[in-house]
Amino acid sequence: MANVSVFALLLLFFVASFTGAQTVPFIVLHGIGDACKYSGMRNLVKSLSRWSGSTGYCLEIGNGSWDSWTKPLLEQTAIACKKVKKMSDLGQGYNIVGLSQGNLIGRGIIEFCDGAPPVRNFISLGGPHAGTASGPLCGSELVCTLIDVVLQLGIYSPLAQQILAPSGYVKMPIDIAGYIRGCRFLPKLNNEIVNERNSSYRQRFASIQNLILIMFEQDKVIIPKETAWFGYYPDGALHPVLPVQQTELYIDDWIGLRALDEAGKVKFVNVSGDHLDISRSDAKTYIVPYLTDQTSVVPRQKLEHSSGWISSIWSSLWGMFGLNEDLTFLSNDI
Length: 334
Ligand SMILES: *[C@@H]1O[C@H](CO)[C@@H](O)[C@H](O)[C@H]1NC(C)=O
Ligand SMILES: *[C@@H]1O[C@H](CO)[C@@H](O)[C@H](O)[C@H]1NC(C)=O
Ligand SMILES: *[C@@H]1O[C@H](CO)[C@@H](O)[C@H](O)[C@H]1NC(C)=O
Known about the structure:
Elements: H1 2-22, E1 26-29, H2 39-52, E2 56-58, H3 65-70, H4 73-86, E3 94-99, H5 102-112, E4 119-125, H6 142-154, H7 158-163, H8 176-182, H9 186-189, H10 199-205, E5 210-216, H11 248-251, H12 257-262, E6 266-271, H13 280-286, H14 313-320
Helix pairs in contact: 4-5, 5-10
Bound molecules: 2-acetamido-2-deoxy-beta-D-glucopyranose (3 copies).
């Protein structure tokens, strides 16, 4: 009898630890102008951890907000690569939740980071995966004219590439040659450069288990919003937006997206809301299931609305041009 109890206890212990070992940790990569220390990000990581039962980490690069603006994305990716390799908890594999620009760093970790632990699920919220085009929505204020001039004349200059992180993924459909020649990040990440395509990037990206691409129906920050699904303008024109399946990146499968899609591993999700403005229920429907292996009871926790992770390129550019004394308005969480 005693033996049976001991056995049962051992079994219970074994099952418990086995189930415990099954939960996969996740990292969150924030967007531009944001920081892990801001309450918006802290609440997001906490809520996702609680709902999924998995351990979540906010992975910071440098000092957060400032560095997210000014460090070239290749450098940011290299820092993130070193960090994930050092985090022993991720050794058996982990999931990534990317917000806006953070998605490109996440993809950079998967494609470029030699010897990194395997990424299982990649949940992308409002990622400028196919680039973002400048212009039409900034408006008619003087600052917008200034920004447009910088973006259109100087965005691919070595200087802009060196001091402005977003210059690494601004893709002007009317200057594809300049983009391929001067843009230092996205053409490499998307294997767009004819003689420099690296099959390792493709093979690595194609090896993840699920890719969840969340597009925000009212997104006015990334242009076009369909870039969150890898849709983009055709070379040389600002319309129409090509659905991902009609882009060369997909058709010739430069990064393994088509392979993933044909294996049923890509979910194209369309949610209502502006850039990164995801509701609790959508977060529970589209993010949480990929962070957890078991169906668990979903507690009614409030996902605080976080202006910290609503990272508007445009409003923050105002800050960069000195019209806003600092960037802390991005952290004014309620
Ligand atoms: C952040 O770090 C950079 C160096 O990478 C430094 O130049 C900058 O002043 C720092 N900014 C803040 C707000 O700490
Ligand atoms: C392709 O990328 C891998 C992984 O980063 C690297 O080891 C290799 O040298 C690259 N190949 C070429 C031809 O650049
Ligand atoms: C996204 O959802 C909205 C509302 O349901 C719908 O009107 C729109 O056509 C959808 N967009 C795409 C690209 O599926």
